[in-house]
UniProtKB/TrEMBL annotation:
GO molecular function: phosphatidylserine binding
Family note: Belongs to the immunoglobulin superfamily. TIM family.
InterPro entries per record: Ig-like_dom, Ig-like_dom_sf, Ig-like_fold, Ig_sub, Ig_V-set
One GO cellular component term noted in the UniProt record for this chain: membrane
Segments of skewed composition (Polar residues): 164-179
Localization of this protein: Membrane
Positions in coiled-coil regions: none
Record keywords, A-Z: Disulfide bond, Glycoprotein, Immunoglobulin domain, Membrane, Signal, Transmembrane, Transmembrane helix
Protein name: HAVR1 protein
């Protein structure tokens, strides 16, 4: 008669099996997705059968099987989109899903049937197939005041239209009253600097001729006055 400890251990092994790991594989729609699975092969006697199923690993075999091998070659294949491209005789039984689709997402079981009681190697996988991301970001438009382009010798500037939030923020023009006497002085100075030369400065030689003529006339008057006296 089995002791309670041995009975509990036997029931635990029976119902839990020998699952060793669970992996998540993320793929992209339209591309091949490889779901890994390997087992150790020390010699030809170690080559064994295995199966892939579209569900978590049950206590035996594979639920909803999609591919079977006898250890040497594929003996059953649910669809040509499910392929084993690895070296089966070296224990590489990774599943390749060709041209993956969103409906390929879900649970997959890799079960390697190793001889012996409860010796099967079980690996549960969660496959997620997503659509490729497409960038939809639109170009940003900036509104600002720009000076002349770098390297340009021109002093002019090009101004991009700008909407002012309120009248208080609008730039002052020459037609608006001066809020400060110093502002008026600055405006007057700028106008004086940019104004054209006065007509009197256009012909300075005329003043020189007038001065010489005046001096000559005075000298003649003095000479006549001396003769008369």
């Amino acid at each position: 008669m089995l002791s309670p400890i041995c009975l509990n251990w036997a029931l635990l092994v029976l119902f839990t099996g020998s699952t060793v790991s669970e992996l998540v594989v993320i793929g992209e729609v339209g591309k091949d997705v490889t779901v890994p699975c390997h087992y150790t092969v020390k010699n030809k006697n170690g080559i064994t059968s295995m199966c892939w199923g579209r569900d978590r690993c049950p206590n035996s075999k594979c639920s909803r099987p999609i591919i079977w091998t006898d250890g040497w070659r594929v003996t059953e294949q649910h669809s040509s989109r499910y392929q084993l491209k690895g070296d089966l005789q070296k224990g590489d039984v990774s599943l390749t899903i060709v041209d993956a689709r969103e409906e390929d997402s879900g649970a997959y079981c890799c079960r390697v049937e190793i001889p012996g009681l409860f010796n099967d190697q079980l690996i549960n996988h969660k496959v997620v197939v997503k659509k490729a991301r497409i960038s939809t970001a639109s170009p940003h438009t900036y509104t600002s005041e720009q000076t002349s382009a770098p390297g340009s010798t021109s002093e002019s500037s090009s101004t991009v239209t700008r909407t002012w939030p309120s009248a208080s923020e609008a730039p002052q023009t020459a037609s608006t009253p001066c809020s400060d006497p110093s502002d008026c002085l600055d405006v007057a100075a700028n106008l004086q600097n940019t104004s054209v030369s006065l007509p009197s400065h256009q012909h300075p030689e005329h003043g020189l001729y007038i001065g010489i003529g005046s001096c000559a006339a005075l000298l003649l008057i003095l000479i006549l006055a001396l003769f008369l006296t």
